[in-house]
Amino acid sequence: HPGFDIQAVRRDFPILSERINGKPLVWLDNAATTHKPRQVIERISHFYAHENSNIHRAAHTLAARATDAYEHAREVVRRFIHAPDAREVIFVRGTTEAINLVAKAWGGTNVGEGDEIIISHLEHHANIVPWQQLAAAKGARLRVIPVDDQGQIRLDEYQKLINDRTKIVAIGHVSNVLGTVVPVKQVVEIARRRGITTLIDGAQSIAHTPVDVQDLGADFFVFSGHKIFAPTGIGVLWGRREVLEAMPPWQGGGNMIADVTFEKTVYQPLPNTFEAGTGNIADAVGLGAALEYVERIGIAQISRYEHALVDYGMAQLASIAGLRLIGTVPGKASVLAFTLDGYSTDEVGQALNAEGIAVRTGHHCAQPILRRFGVETAVRPSLAFYNTFDEVDQLVREVRKLAARRR
Ligand code: PMP
């Protein structure tokens, strides 16, 4: 039993009533993006119908409404991730932009020749490439925490990698390919003891597990709105206030300045320092509505239900002959990845789509971890709290049929 009214939840998401190839849609591609409840869709529509304006700059009523709505969303984000101060919440385009911002603004100042940056073998390309670019620009070195055969990072190897040249540890909270929940609190604690800066990529954890940035202890926590029932094009960089205040701005322009002359610009304080130009106001408001929606259900309830669903799915898939599960760490979040003997991953994806079941196939923007397990691509069903045991059964039934046909 999910601990919430799952049928009522499903009715809140209009797209879940779509039919695909004559079959009810079974959306198991939540790690790529999640669907939006009508509460979010209606909130954005309300914004454009009644509140639309640029923020901060004008003295008229709509500017006040838009500013209030935008700042309310910032406060909701603060509450959702348990940040101490809403000024530490920076709206960005998504996880990718947040990590690039930190790599450029923080890394540009704090990383030099011979320094080291630690990531893990589990990372999404978004938490690899910006650090690689920074390392190349600065003559620094990228070090990678290896994973074991189940798909968990090796803490013993991490302890060996970390040293006096380590400047930052950037680590994913949940793997988007394996579903591994990484012990990020421990990773952060080990770094902090040595005064090393830390960043957590929360793209795959935000919708599946409670997040308390103060408890996690990192300097940065980043996520994308679209992975948590909010629109695309909006995301969050949370940073510890003193760390953000010591960083130079990333982009320059309107909104982030207090005073400009041709000789000199004085910047706005946080959060505006890092919000140059007109932001994605309506979608930030939509993100606030999405987080309020999740708060009403309860992220702890969601997490408990999803873990039961994932464990069930893992057990069912494991019983299919010729199916290889990739990533078998107990307590996985959301993601089930596998390959099937006799089929390309695309063939599996297309066969499932014919039955209305949407899963991602391919390299999932995380080639290194797939190669660690000896494959280039995988089939990746991924769950959210609106998925049901019945939908998992449908997935398993169709995969079992495919497996039987090749034997
Ligand atoms: N990190 C992880 C772990 C992800 O799963 C994703 C999205 N697949 C990203 C980063 C990048 O997120 P976005 O494309 O929304 O910027």
Automatic annotation (TrEMBL):
Its EC number is 2.8.1.7. Its cofactor is pyridoxal 5'-phosphate. GO terms for molecular function: cysteine desulfurase activity; pyridoxal phosphate binding. Keywords: Pyridoxal phosphate, Transferase. It is an enzyme of class 2 (transferase). It catalyses: (sulfur carrier)-H + L-cysteine = (sulfur carrier)-SH + L-alanine. Residues 26-395 form the Aminotransferase class V domain. GO terms for biological process: cysteine metabolic process. It comes from the Bacteria. Belongs to the class-V pyridoxal-phosphate-dependent aminotransferase family. Csd subfamily. This is cysteine desulfurase. It comes from Comamonas koreensis. The chain holds residues 251 to 657 of 657 of the full protein.
